[in-house]
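Practice problem: predict the structure.
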Amino acid sequence: MSERPKLKLELTTFDKTLEILGWTSILAIWVLTIINYTNLPDTTPIHYNGAGQADGFGGKSTILTLPLISTVLFIGLTILNKFPHVFNYPTNITQENALRQYTNATRLIRYLKFIIVIIFGLIAFKTIQNANGEADGLGIWFLPLTLGLIFIPLTFYIIKTIKTKQ
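Answer:
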């Protein structure tokens, strides 16, 4: 592998908006969890099957793992996004195409980290509802929605990357 160019990318308004939405979502999932924590019963759902039904239960403190994991993933991806030259690309990176490829890749990571927080936030919200008897499971829609939110943009990005080789 040849040495890839190291570029400083300027964020567009869209990129900045995604970052702000991501950080706001991190704050929201923490606020949601902390505000509802004291009202949770001692046993809460901790796992859901593919149909969205709770199939594992544990102590109420496990609800804190949702904002914790989403925060760690968000921060980790934010740090990684500063080094697009280390990403895996389906095409060769050259000086001529580096800016376009890095921009596409970092935008994808920015989108995915926002979606990850949204997904964890929905799980936290539905878990709180389930624990309080206000809902039954995540819903049959949850798994297809999650897969769509992740894989449709990922597929779009890969196609776009291959089309913009030059």
